[in-house]
Specification:
This protein is an alpha/beta fold. The chain has one domain: 2,3-Dihydroxybiphenyl 1,2-Dioxygenase, domain 1, CATH 3.10.180.10. The protein is built from three helices and eight strands. The strands form two sheets. Strands 1-4-3-2 form a four-stranded mixed β-sheet. Strands 5-8-7-6 form a four-stranded mixed β-sheet, covered by helices on one side. A hairpin with a 5-residue loop joins strand 7 and strand 8. Helix 2 crosses helix 3.
Length: 140
């Protein structure tokens, strides 16, 4: 499927498993953060919507304004962090490289790179909105 040209209805019908959608007051800024720090590519990038693919997972980003009639928008805090207690793992992305990129760009590293007892080397980096992204690789 060509993510740049697939019609919205066809894309929607193709989704399976668990979907992750993040709201952002500045969608292009969040897409830029994901590209700069984690090397992820945004597809169909506009002021209102983007698709981010990582492995077999599709992450969607919607601008706040696109949720105008959705009751979820009324629960979004005015100031970050938006993701409060949510941690988004990005498996297969080197946490050392991502942390270096994040630090160089002035992003907040909430948890420094460490080898964890569950067999992952990971870090936690906050997006400009306050979403917690954790790049992680196996320590084996």
């Amino acid at each position: 499927m060509d993510l740049e040209t697939v019609p919205a209805e066809e894309f929607g019908r193709s989704l399976t498993g668990i979907g992750l959608n993040l709201l952002s007051p500045d969608l292009r800024r969040l897409a830029g953060f994901l590209a700069q720090v984690f090397g992820l590519c945004a597809h169909r990038l506009s002021d209102d919507f983007a698709i981010i693919r990582h492995g077999g997972m599709m992450l969607q980003i919607h601008a706040d304004g696109t949720y105008g009639a959705h009751p979820l928008l009324s629960l979004v805090p005015e100031v970050p962090p938006r993701g409060g207690a949510m941690q988004i793992y990005l498996f297969g992305i080197d946490p050392d490289t991502a942390s270096q990129r994040a630090e160089a760009a002035g992003h907040m590293i909430l948890e420094q790179v460490a080898d964890k007892v569950h067999g992952l080397r990971e870090a936690t980096i906050l997006s400009p909105e306050g979403y917690a992204f954790s790049p992680a690789v196996s320590t084996a």
